[in-house]
């Protein structure tokens, strides 16, 4: 009966996914009964109508979660999906809020994350109900509203409702993610009245310790032409868009150099880091087009002569006198949960700047400290003193992902993904202390602790057995650096909905689900419900 049910209802499943996709359920301003705005509340209303059409009563719990129960028996299983989505962004080849069925896929924002799986879960409940199997336990489907912005919906919901004994969320991939690493992602900062006030005779730390940075430029110091680096300074540094994204581009504006001065340093840094460097003139030492000493003075687009390009392998002609140059580092971006797969443009830029001779000042010393804690290529937290690993969840990862510095201060952000053995004592407090040694103060040491459900638990064994029986694929437990909807829910795991090696473009343009995989999800959910609630 299950196979026939799925086959006969697949068109309705796709239709109902389309009904939800049509609602742009992006978080908005809170209103009475609508804690995440009108659009998210509209998606809840659509889901409630779909549940009613399938023969279920639903309960809207104060706008936080739409609850659908299979029966009135004691809970044995929870299924947790969410109806909110991230904004559509750019680059779509199909309208993001119109479900487009073609080539064995259904396209649209939310088709994979997480409206498609939510509809599949509703139809799985309907299939079990139609089968008429006598069950002694209940499955509770929870359709949430704030997964994309912190999951405060669940915090409020579980103040009002009990937590099911075990739950799964089809908001990741198969087979089973039973380990989600902890996270310590924070901002740090330091301020100073005026970077120029601290200028001192003699070179700054980067020049004194050029050998320790691994730079080959130290032996051919461009500063030798005038015997001093007192006029050289870092005007600003800018990199990063989010704590959880390793930056692919980073920029800095420096002052007091001629074009030819920069080339040896750029070449050495490029050879050392594998990141591509270039520089262009953005005005004279006075910072044409900007108030002298203002934060961000001398940035591109604020006047100055036509750019003089400087980079490894590029012929360079000196400009008359010294100038401000914007240095650009281009690396390879990636998600912060696997920083080793990218090449961090920011840490490469810091490495370059710390190899160059600047006047000693608070800004230069702060940047030196950043480089000491986050040296380029160290994605395991060795320099920060937090490197650790365990057999179940693997190694800690650490990435510097944001840095903004001007003549008034510095603010940066990092992201650490932490294995089971991590806690505040051996991770967040250690990292905060490492930064504090350099006058860089972290917001706080509170961290998200790891989430772990033992692989030999009966629940996990049931999920893996059903997955293997339905797909013929090997079932295993997997650890992830990211977090899912169930991270803070005891006994709960991520289970589906995407199949291994399927890239659904979740959070990107042209998000989609594979239709055959959606059908398989319904069958898998049905079998799990029968196993857990019989």
Coarse shape: elongated
Helix content: 25-40%
Most strands sheet: 9 strands, antiparallel
Q: Span between N and C termini?
A: 17 Å
Give the helix tally.
Answer: 11
Rg over C-alpha atoms, rounded to the nearest angstrom:
27 Å
Number of beta strands? 27
What structural keywords apply?
534 residues, alpha+beta, 6-stranded mixed beta sheet, 24% strand
How would you briefly describe this protein structure?
By secondary structure, the chain is an alpha+beta fold.
Detailed description of the structure:
The chain is an alpha+beta fold and 534 residues long. Helix content is 28%, strand content 24%. It is built from eleven helices and 27 strands. The chain has a nine-stranded antiparallel sheet. Strand 20 (397-405) and strand 21 form a beta hairpin. Helix 1 crosses helix 11 (515-533) and helix 10 crosses helix 11. The model is unreliable at 195-227, 284-309 and 312-320 (pLDDT under 50).
């Amino acid at each position: 009966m299950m196979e026939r049910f799925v086959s006969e209802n697949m068109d309705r499943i796709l239709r109902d996914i389309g009904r939800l996709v049509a609602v742009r359920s992006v978080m908005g301003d809170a209103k009475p009964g609508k804690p995440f705005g009108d659009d998210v509340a509209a998606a809840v209303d659509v889901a409630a109508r779909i549940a009613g059409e399938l023969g279920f009563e639903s309960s809207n719990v104060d706008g936080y979660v739409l609850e659908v129960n299979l029966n009135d028996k004691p809970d044995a299983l929870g299924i947790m999906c969410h109806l909110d989505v991230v904004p559509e962004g750019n680059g779509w080849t199909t309208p993001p809020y119109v479900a487009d069925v073609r080539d064995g896929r259904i396209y649209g924002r939310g088709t994979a994350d997480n409206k498609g799986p939510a509809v599949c879960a509703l139809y799985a409940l309907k299939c079990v109900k139609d089968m008429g199997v006598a069950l002694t336990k209940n499955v509770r489907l929870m359709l949430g509203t704030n997964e994309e912005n912190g999951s405060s919906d669940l915090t409020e919901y579980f103040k009002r409702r009990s937590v099911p004994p075990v739950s799964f969320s089809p908001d990741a991939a198969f087979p089973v993610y039973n380990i989600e690493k902890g996270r310590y992602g924070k901002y740090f900062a330091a301020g100073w009245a005026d970077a120029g006030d601290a200028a001192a005779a003699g070179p700054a730390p980067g020049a004194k310790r050029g050998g320790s940075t691994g730079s080959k430029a130290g032996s051919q110091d461009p500063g030798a032409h005038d015997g001093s680096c007192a006029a050289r300074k870092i005007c600003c540094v800018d990199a990063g868009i989010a704590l959880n994204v390793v930056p692919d581009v980073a920029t800095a504006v420096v002052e007091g150099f001629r074009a030819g001065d920069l080339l040896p340093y750029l070449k050495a840094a490029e050879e050392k880091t594998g990141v591509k460097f270039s520089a262009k003139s953005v005005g004279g030492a006075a910072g044409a087009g900007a108030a002298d000493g203002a934060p961000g003075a001398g940035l591109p687009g604020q006047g100055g002569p036509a750019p003089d390009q400087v980079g490894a392998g590029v012929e360079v002609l000196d400009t008359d006198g010294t100038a401000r140059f914007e240095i650009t580092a281009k690396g390879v971006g990636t998600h912060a949960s696997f920083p080793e797969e990218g090449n961090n443009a920011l840490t490469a830029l810091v490495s370059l700047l710390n190899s160059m001779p600047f006047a000693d000042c608070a800004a230069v010393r702060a940047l030196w400290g950043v480089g000491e804690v986050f040296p380029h290529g160290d994605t395991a937290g060795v320099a920060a003193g937090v490197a650790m690993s365990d057999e179940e969840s693997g190694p800690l990862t650490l990435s510097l992902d944001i840095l903004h510095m001007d003549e008034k201060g510095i603010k940066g952000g990092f992201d650490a993904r932490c294995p089971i053995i991590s806690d505040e004592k051996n991770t967040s407090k250690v990292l905060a202390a490492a930064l504090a040694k350099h006058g860089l103060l972290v917001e706080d040491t509170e961290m998200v602790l790891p989430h772990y459900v033992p692989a030999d638990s009966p629940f996990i064994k049931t999920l893996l057995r059903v997955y293997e029986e339905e797909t013929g694929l090997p079932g295993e437990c997997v650890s992830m650096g990211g977090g899912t909807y169930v991270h803070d829910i005891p006994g709960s795991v991520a289970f589906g909905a995407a199949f291994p090696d399927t890239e659904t473009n979740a959070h990107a343009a042209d998000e989609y689900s594979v239709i055959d995989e959606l059908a398989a999800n319904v069958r898998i959910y049905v079998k799990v419900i029968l196993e857990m609630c019989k």
